[in-house]
Amino acid sequence: MPTFDAELWIHVTVGGTTWSTSIFPDTKRGAYLLPVKKDVRRREGLEVGDRLSVALELV
């Protein structure tokens, strides 16, 4: 299992919106967390609990 010990800088696309951010390790889940900005949620019509597809590019 990979280690989750550093944030990763990425470009992310959700729907028609692309932005730069970082994802953060969650060692309890063994995964990374992707924060989605309020502006992006509003533009894309996202609500809490929605499932979505994302495209990630490491930078």
Question: Can you give a write-up of this model?
Answer:
By secondary structure, the protein is mostly beta strands. The protein has one domain. It contains one helix and four strands. It has one helix spanning 38-44, and strands spanning 8-14, 17-26, 31-33, 55-58. It has a four-stranded antiparallel beta sheet with strand order 3-2-1-4. The longest helix has 7 residues, at 38-44. The chain is globular, with a radius of gyration of 12 Å. The chain starts with 7 loop residues before the first strand and ends with a strand. The relative contact order is 0.32. The model has no long low-confidence stretch (mean pLDDT 89).
Q: What is the alpha-carbon Rg in Å?
A: 12 Å
Strand percentage lies at 35-45%
Unreliable stretches covering 5 or more consecutive residues: none
- Quickly count the domains: 1
Distance between the termini: 23 Å
Structural class: mainly beta
Rounded mean pLDDT is 89
Question: DSSP helix count?
Answer: 1
Strand count: 4
Sketch the topology as an H/E string, one letter per element.
EEEHE
Indicate the percent of residues in helices: 10-25%
Main pleated sheet: 4 strands, antiparallel
* Main sheet: strand order: 3-2-1-4
Based on CA inertia axes, which overall geometry fits?
A: globular
Give the oligomeric state.
single chain
